[in-house]
Structures are given as C-alpha cells and as structure tokens.
Write a structure and sequence with these properties.
Elements lengths: L12 E9 L5 E12 L18 E12 L2 E7 L16 E13 L5 E4 L2 E3 H6 L3 E6 L30 E10 L8
Antiparallel strand pairs: 1-4, 1-9, 2-3, 2-5, 3-4, 5-6, 5-7, 8-9
Length: about 180
C-alpha cells in the first residue's frame, strides 16, 4: 500500500463547538481525531481473488482550545488529505468521514468516565449539529469491569428513574474557510 499524503495547503477549515451540558465532572483529557476515507473506490486495486476494493482510511489529530469550562472549539480541515493517483487507476479523492472525540471525565465520586462521541462527516460539512446523551453511571470507566452503555440520541431512551443522571455532548459545526492555513 502506498503512503497516503497530506495536502500541504488545506483551505477547507471547519470549526466545531463541543459543548457538555450537565457533565458529571471536569474534563480530564480530550482527544480529537478527524477520520478520512477515499470516497470513490474505483481508484483502488482489487484484493486478488476477492473482487473487493479496500477502503483506505487515515486519521489526523484535530486541534482544539477550551473556550469555557465545558466548551471547546475544535478545528479540522475537510481537504487535509491529498487527492492523488496513488495506484495508477485514477485520482483517489478523500472525504472527511467523521470527527471522533475521546473525553475522559471525572464524576462527583472521583471515578473516571470515558466517552467517545462522534460527529459524522456529512453532518459536520453540512453544518448540522448533533447532541448525544450519556448516562453518568453506564459508561466505560478506567476499570474495564465497570458497566458499559451505548450513547443514545435522546434522554427518553433511558429509563425514567435514571434520566436525571443523563448528560449531553453537543456538536455545533460551522465552516471557517481559510486561504493560508495548515492542519
């Protein structure tokens, strides 16, 4: 497989406000990752004997700054990957597939909570936000034996008795086109 290259002069900058509401405690760490994949697989060679073309993916760190105690501004570039003919089959065009956030929080009992909210690339690029809801006591913790729950699209998904223990993470995307920026 070839080494996929970064666009040396990306210009399609997007900013995403990440807002936590009723979080169980402070954010200990935040890691943002922009995931890219090739949009049209006709530029990829087939895996011999299968007829399948692999989907190339590449992840880059997303930069962020804390703007308020429970708000962050995250920057990504839609055109961070270089569109190029990597395999001699035509130009591989990259798309921003998703923005993944890894949040490590501490709850009121000083237990660690780890959540991984994701904003799909189509939502980010179109400016559609997203709010995900998490149960304070149902998320993966540092101890892998603790309970696990999935993130849901609304607090009503949870049983009524635990709804007061639900918090949300909201993505608010906006374009911020830049002419002379680097990722």
């Amino acid at each position: 497989m070839p080494h996929y290259r970064l666009n040396p002069h990306p210009q399609q900058r997007y900013e995403v406000v990440l807002r936590l509401d009723d979080a169980p405690g402070p954010v200990l760490t935040l890691q943002g990752t922009a995931q890219y994949e090739v949009a049209d697989l006709s530029c990829m060679p087939e895996v011999p004997g299968t007829g399948v073309r692999p989907v190339p993916r590449h992840s880059l760190p997303a930069t962020y700054v804390r703007t308020e105690p429970q708000r962050y501004l995250i920057a990504v570039y839609a055109d961070a990957m270089r569109d190029e003919d990597y395999h001699g089959l035509g130009v591989c065009r990259w798309k921003l597939a998703a923005l993944h956030i890894g949040l490590h929080l501490a709850d009121r009992q000083h237990r660690d909570i780890v959540i991984d909210p994701t904003l799909p690339g189509e939502a980010l690029l179109s400016g559609r936000g997203s709010t995900l809801h998490f149960w304070r006591d149902g998320r993966p913790r540092v101890n892998p034996q603790d309970a696990v729950a999935l993130d849901y699209q609304g607090p009503r998904t949870y049983r009524e008795e635990i709804r007061p223990d639900v918090f949300s993470v909201t993505f608010i995307p906006r374009a911020s086109i830049s002419r002379t920026s680097t990722p």
